Queue: 2 jobs
Job 1
Amino acid sequence: MKQFSGIVLVAVLSIGFSSFALADEAAYKKLHAEAVAANDKALAAGGEWRDARGKKSKFIKCGDKKMSILHAAECYAAKGDYDNAIKYAEMAKDQGEQGYRQAMNQKNAGPRH
Amino acid sequence: MKKVILIVLAAGLSLGVGPAFATTQAEDIAALKAYFAERWPNIKDEDMVNGAYSLSEDKRINWESMRDFPPYEDHLAIGEEIWNTPFKNGNTWASCFGDDPSTIRNRFPHWNARDKKVETLEGNIIQCQKANGEEPFKAKKGKIAYFSAWLASQANGQTINVVVPQDDPDAVAAYEAGRQFFYAKRGQLNLSCADCHVYQSGLYARGNLLSPARGHTTHFPVWRGKWARSGGDGFGTLHRRYGGCNSQVRAKSFKAHGEEYSNLEYFHASMSNGLTIEAPDYRE
């Protein structure tokens, strides 16, 4: 009986953990898509920032390498570290949104002297 | 009566809150010159070609000692060799630019009314190579900088006069796009070209004395100590510098000789109208 209960407990826990992991993966994928869209919008307005997804950026470390924020999100997701993947996907999305807002605010920039 | 008041009010408001870009090239140059004249009453306008070295005696002494034995002489010799080497098809650079190398540098940047775009010297060097079936130089450093620097050296002492044809709305739009770029804050640091090189010029950003925008384009391509220390040969074009500046404020940089930087150069070079070409030169 004890053995049976143990097996049931392990099964329930593993289902629980895997559903959490699936939920994290889904949340990451959603944020990643939103980050890409936000930065595409900023790029189209001429206001994308350097570190959101720049190929030469060395802003965030993942493993031994430094890379852009979105690339770091992808790197952590590939390792199954969805806490960091989500954190950096959110950060990249935020940079895209701020870059777009900045470009819109500066559309009529001119001298103030 | 109410109607008249409303019309007058609307006219007044539209004058008061009109777009920041409703000025001409001549007005922009005059305003920038006046701003710097007030900021540094003891510095003559013609000394603006020396950039930050007009603002600091210590920096000036170092710069003058570098100029005694310029680190870029060998690169200029390569530039001259490039001018004298015909293309594989037998044509020479003169087929694109004319026979006299001293007349080339000062024709750029200019407005190409047929193609409705700003043309830059380095952009046209690449275009000339492509038209003659040659492999083009890399856009920002290396041979393009040596060649452009040698062409600039042939034009030393000539007065810059970038023309924006006021009767061509496309040319005016390109100039205004360049001005908007210059004054627009960008990147995570939220800084514009003007923040450093107009409003904060003469102050320090870390160890660097910020140079005034007037005179900037007179000495490009430049040999920079920073570029030499980063493993290169030190030489770079104006668009290399634009990319570096954008990256420093954490903005994504634009393609060299693309529309954004060419328009920026059109405005930026205009702001040095009346000054003389002094190129290439050493910068920190």
Job 2
Amino acid sequence: MNIWKISIKNLFHKPLYTVLSILSLTISIALLISIKQLDTSVKQQFENNLGNIDMVVGAKGSPLQLVLASVLHIDNPTGNIVYKDAKKLARNPLIKTAVPISYGDNYKGYRIVGTTDAFVKLYDVKITKGKDFNKPMEAVLGYDVAQKTRLKLGDTFLSSHGFNDDMGHEHPETFIVVGIFEQTHKVIDRLITTPLESIWDVHNHHSEEDGHAEEGHHHDDEEHHHDEEHHHEEEDNKQITSMLVKFRNPIGLITIPRQVNEKTAMQAAIPKYEMERLFNFTGIGVKAISWIAYIILFISSIIIFINLYKMVKERAFDLALLRTYGASNFQLIKIVAIEGFITSIIAIVFGVSLSQLGLLYIFNVLGKQYQQSIPSTLEFYNVFQIILWVLLVVVVAILFAVIPILKMNVSKILTDEK
Amino acid sequence: MIKTKNLTFQYNSNGELFHFPDIDLPDEESLLILGKSGIGKTTLLHLIAGLLQPKSGSVTIDNVSLQTLKNKKLDQFIGKHIGLVFQKNYANRSLNVIENLQARLYFSKQKQNKSHIENLLKTLNIIECKTKKINELSEGQLQRLGIALSVVHQPKVILADEPTASLDDDNCKIVLQLLLQQSKLNNANLIVITHDQRVKPMFKNILEL
């Protein structure tokens, strides 16, 4: 027999209290870790997706929408810009890389992005199978696209108009798969990239077939205006959806966006800044849930305190008896403290496991909705911080619970109980 | 061997001052302290057990003055050399009979010898309850466990506070016989305090307060 065994036997003696303590603490730990991890993972995912993009230039409208559409590829674009204007801007010496992208179509819900070979540089991504595109109608698939659609090298597919699978009709032009990217956990995983010319070709032919009378009929999305006059003109008069820009040095970040917004018909948006704005909105929800979790933590600490305190009070005679056996005050405190710590360690193990199981499920659902697998990042620092909080709260509960032991008058307890 | 000298005690500074007669009990002798309620019997017992500190005077057990021991040393001394028996018997309810006795030995820093414990339970006739929880024991079995707890660590002094108050005549006799038997087996002093006149014939040394 020793102190540990006595503590454990005490816990088993009142299983209901013990389970209640463990359960409430488990829930608060699981909530705290989940919310923290979810927040970090999603933020990291967004930041990851920003890649090396310092600025995005597109049609005027909401800057957040422009970023969501052109950088994260989850919203509709604000409109089109003239490629010539964009090219002119790209000649600015402060700009290191400028990548035009053009949208319009999807395959089974995966967006087809018309761009140049500079696009891959923004994401530091390699092609694992096949080669990069170099002719119109050649396509390189993102990792997730290849996985989900089961398209292989050499396969052909027809694009559908619009951004969602069910939005439009199919175009008659067939794309051919020439390459597949490695998995990056970035937005490129769920994109199909192809030369800009593919998009222009598809839509030009499309317009020709539809004829003048129907102009605009299938093009009520403003971003798909392709005037008849344009398709015989040189490339520079074509339209693109937006241009992704990386600066040579930070000065560009200060001067160029303002320049674009004030002096051109285009709009410049800074992805990092827009993301921060977005997180400020979502942050409120995260904060609210965090607060709820902290409140539950507080309540469970009170439950633990009450259980330990009750044990100390109800078994005052037992504890006094142990003192007559030769136990020191410190040993009695140890019994209570070990009970508290065993409870919290079990709760921590359960809480961490529960949070990981829950997150596995959440990330699975999110991944499906987002069409992209999100890596769940467990920040040990965060978990460590939460565990420290929990232990601190438990220590305080224990300290309050052992006060009666310190004030215990053995003789009086033994006399009163008679 | 127990000696007390000029023991006085006061619960608070303006409360009643208790004076106790000196006790000088040689090895292996037993003593009955008789007295009415409120006269300070339990106080005297707790002074001898080192659970209370006297206002003046001293308690000496085996040539060690309790007044010279402090905190942990006093705890250890009490645990090792004194066994207490109470009117109502309590034991730790989360432990079973044998675990309680092991805990008793653990805190007085003695070997948790299982055969020693089982022999004791045999002599006290409760060996069949050794793995029972405390709340599964009958009154009589609990009483015997109380005695076992007071002697399992082979103390020098057994102090019993009204051990027979709630017992009928037969059980009163049995309990006292067991206490006397155990004190003999352990070569310990036995001091019983009570207002119960029935136990008088069983003692040679009697102190009336």
